[in-house]
Write a structure and sequence with these properties.
The structure holds two protein chains of two kinds. Chain A is mostly helical. Chain A contains nine helices and no strands. Helices cover 86% and strands 0% of the residues of chain A. In chain A, helix 6 packs antiparallel against helix 7. The longest helix of chain A is centred in the middle third of the chain and has 39 residues. The relative contact order of chain A is 0.16. In chain B, strand 1 and strand 2 form a beta hairpin. Chain B starts with 17 loop residues before the first strand and ends with a helix. The chains are: A mainly alpha, B alpha/beta. At the A-B interface, helix 5 of A face helix 2, strand 6 and helix 3 of B.
Chain lengths: 257, 269
Amino acid sequence: MTRFLEAIGRVVLRVLEEIGRFFSMLGSVAAWAVRPPYDVAELLRQMVRVGYDSIPVVLVTTLFTGMVLALQTFNGFARFHAQNLVGSVVALSLTRELAPVLTALMVTGRVGSAMAAELGTMRVTEQIDALTSLATEPVQYLMVPRVAASILMLPLLVIMGDVVGIYGGYFVAVQLLGANPVAYLDNSFQYLHVSDDVVSGVIKAAVFGLIFSLIACVRGYYTEGGAEGVGRSTTRAVVSGSLSVLVADFFLTKLLY
Amino acid sequence: MEGKASTARRPEEAGPKLEAEDLHKSFGDKVVLDGISFSVAQGESLVIVGPSGTGKSVLLKHLIGLIRPDSGKVFVAGEDFWALSHVERNRARKRFGMSFQEGALFDSMSVFDNIAFPLRRSGQPADRVRKRVRECLEIVHLPNVEEKRTSELSGGMRRRVGFARAIAHEPEILLFDEPNTGLDPIMTEIIDEVILEMRERMKPTIVTITHHVESARKIGDRVALLFGGKLLYDARPDEFLAASDPAVRQFVEGKSQGPLTQDFEVSAR
């Protein structure tokens, strides 16, 4: 029994330590972000890695999500003759919820893992020590551009995902299930409020960008133990990044509802 | 190795360039530094030797503030390093050039960009950067490698590019972490010569850690033995090599049995 309680205590302590580390690093990143020198070239490079390079993954994810959403709701709604509401369901689900969350999860897997592995490798090969020895603050040089690029690029990816996902739904409903194209589009946008639904999704995306990138950077930065340690940090970055996105999603939805 | 009264700031001209005062550091239960004090004068070269795993790298990293001591002080040109603000510490670090064990080159950059890194960070113009990078590569005898990726370099080349990056911003203090470990005898000799040449040209204060006794003899004005978290012996190279101290004798002669391997002897029995 004591051993069981000890095990629980250890897990709780570790989680609390991680949360503390996250917020203390958040403070450091914010403080170093406003201090010169501003490395615009590195920021642009990271924006390409986080944003541009993730476009195919995000588009395929949201396209098929929109398509399957239309397929499922059409099937279900047909049972009580509400097929004309499919467009609204697809548009609202995508913009408010699915595009931001799925985009964040895909980017966490693709980019968060790369960030943790890169910083982790730099840690175990003493490259982070070398940066410090050259009077360069690693938080400013490595983390600030990665976190800033993620906050800036996730919203853009989500807007792209919204458009493509809604088109996916339209394609399935109209081309495969025979819905009236004019009625479908009309219904899609009748209940969709850009200032509310789309913007709430975009705000979520920016927060998710901050969460996954900071977790990945912190995991990588504190890597210990050679190649095995880098592997561990990478896995943890993806797992805790994805879980944190999902947990944060609930609270953000509650907040922005 | 006598202890000295500590003050926040000491006059730079009068005091030593680099000074450690009663440094203590433990990782968990393992005591790595157990009250280390030494000083290195302007232009002097101190070599710290010792068996692997005795905390030589940890000691070197304390000198440039990569690791914070549990207690004790480090004075850089008279300034108490850990009494400085974060920004001031980075300014103090500009006095240093450090070469790491495996080079620690930035593998996302070319050789040129690695050496140019500290120059660009301090806002130097492109033509000055280009000139200085070429100069540094000449000093370490590595012409025509500017555009190579760091992954294309051999071990000896990586070390020398690491040296070039460490000296690019013309530091006053050079720290070498195992500069010739894992290299063949010829490259070991070349590395020692490069260090001596850098010394001749730049007259820096140098702290080197190594377990090569022969290198220590060549590049040091003083050689000290680190073991059990303490500096056991600190003397001129010829005195060090001739010392009758059993620990020094065991290290210099490379014997498997002696005071440095007591734990090993116990477990082997």
